[in-house]
Design brief:
- The chain is α/β, with parallel strands linked by helices and 284 residues long.
- It has one domain: Ribonuclease Z/Hydroxyacylglutathione hydrolase-like (Metallo-beta-lactamase, Chain A, 4-Layer Sandwich).
- It is 17% helix and 31% strand.
- The chain has six helices and 18 strands.
- The strands form four sheets. It has a seven-stranded mixed beta sheet, with helices on one face. A seven-stranded mixed beta sheet has the order 9-8-7-4-3-2-18, covered by helices on one side.
- A hairpin with a 2-residue loop joins strand 5 and strand 6.
Length: 284
C-alpha cells in the first residue's frame, strides 16, 4: 500500500468525542456519519418518489420512497464519500445543490466528471490507495476497497465502484468502518480481512439490483457471505428498497441472516432512523 495522501480540514475540532457516534439513514445508500467531530455524507441521493434516474445505455429506474430529509436540511459537511457515479448515488439534486467546494472522495471515473461540473475539491482513490483526513485533533484514514459492480462483460459497461474503509484514530485506531459500495462477491474481497482485521461496523449495499436481468448488487445471500468474509462486529444493511430495479428486499436478508445464525450482529434501519454506537477506549 502506498503512503496515504493528506487532507486537512479548516474547521476546528479541539475536543473530539471518540466515545460515541451515530449513523443517520437518509435512504438508498445515503447516510450521515457523525463521529470524532467529523460529519460525513455518503452517496448523496435526494430525488423523490416518482422521480427517475438514468443508469446508462438508455436504462432508467423510478424511485419508490422519499429520502428522510431534503438536501437543504443537511448540517455542514466535512466531506462526501461517493462509491461511484450512478444516478441513484449522485443525482441531479446533489449536482445542483451541494456546495461545489465540498471535498468529495471517489473513483477516478467519478472525480473526472465532478471536476467538469464545477466541484473544486475532489480526491481520487484507486483500490487500496488511502487518504488521511485531519480535522483538528482527530484523523480518519480512508482506504479504497475493491468493488465489482457487474459480472463479466457487464462489469466493464458499468461505472467503476469502490468500497471504503474508514479508520478513526487518536492516534491509535478507535473505530474501523467498512462501506461496501455497489459490489458483488468477488475474490478480491477476501483480501480485506487480511489487511483490515477487527472491523467494528459495516454498511452493506444490498437490494439484488438487476440490469437487463443480471444482478449487479448483492442480494440477501451475498450480503451474508460478505459478512462472513469481512467479519464486522455489527452490520447494517442499506440500499435495499428505494428503486424498482431492486429485486431482493430487506425481508430476504433478514431470513438469510436468521438462517446463518447472525441475528445478533445485524442492526436494521428504516429511512429516518439513527443508529447510535459506543466505542470502548481500548480495542480488544
Amino acid at each position: 500500500m502506498e503512503a496515504p495522501r493528506a487532507l486537512t480540514l479548516p474547521r476546528r475540532n479541539e475536543d473530539p468525542d471518540f466515545g460515541s457516534g451515530s449513523i443517520f439513514f437518509i435512504g438508498n445508500a445515503t447516510v450521515l456519519i457523525r463521529y470524532a467531530g467529523f460529519t460525513i455524507l455518503t452517496d448523496p441521493n435526494f430525488l423523490h418518489a416518482g422521480d427517475h434516474v438514468h443508469l446508462g445505455y438508455g436504462l432508467t429506474s423510478r424511485r419508490t420512497i422519499d429520502p428522510a430529509v431534503e438536501i437543504e436540511d443537511l448540517p455542514p459537511l466535512d466531506f462526501v464519500l461517493l462509491s461511484h457515479l450512478h444516478g441513484d448515488h449522485f443525482d441531479r439534486v446533489a449536482e445542483q445543490k451541494l456546495n461545489k467546494a465540498t471535498p468529495i472522495v471517489s473513483t477516478p471515473h467519478a472525480t473526472r466528471y465532478l471536476g467538469k461540473v464545477g466541484f473544486s475539491r475532489t480526491h481520487t482513490l484507486k483500490t487500496w490507495e488511502a487518504l488521511d483526513v485531519r480535522k483538528g485533533e482527530a484523523k480518519v484514514r480512508l482506504t479504497a476497497m475493491p468493488g465489482t459492480h457487474g459480472p463479466g462483460p457487464l462489469g466493464a459497461l458499468l461505472p467503476p465502484v469502490m468500497g471504503t474503509m474508514l479508520e478513526f484514530d487518536d492516534p491509535e485506531i478507535r473505530l474501523r468502518m467498512y462501506i461496501s459500495g455497489d459490489t458483488l462477491i468477488h475474490e478480491h474481497l477476501r483480501e480485506i480481512p487480511r489487511r483490515f482485521p477487527d472491523v467494528d461496523l459495516a454498511l452493506l449495499h444490498l437490494g439484488g439490483t438487476r440490469v437487463l436481468g443480471i444482478m449487479v448488487t448483492m442480494d440477501a445471500e451475498q450480503g451474508v457471505e460478505v459478512m462472513r468474509i469481512v467479519d464486522p462486529s455489527t452490520a447494517i444493511p442499506i440500499h435495499y428498497n428505494d428503486y424498482e430495479v431492486f429485486t431482493s428486499p430487506l425481508e430476504d436478508f433478514k431470513r438469510a441472516v436468521s438462517a446463518a445464525g447472525l441475528q445478533d450482529r445485524v442492526h436494521y434501519m428504516g429511512h429516518g432512523d439513527t443508529y447510535e454506537f459506543e466505542v470502548p477506549f481500548a480495542r480488544g
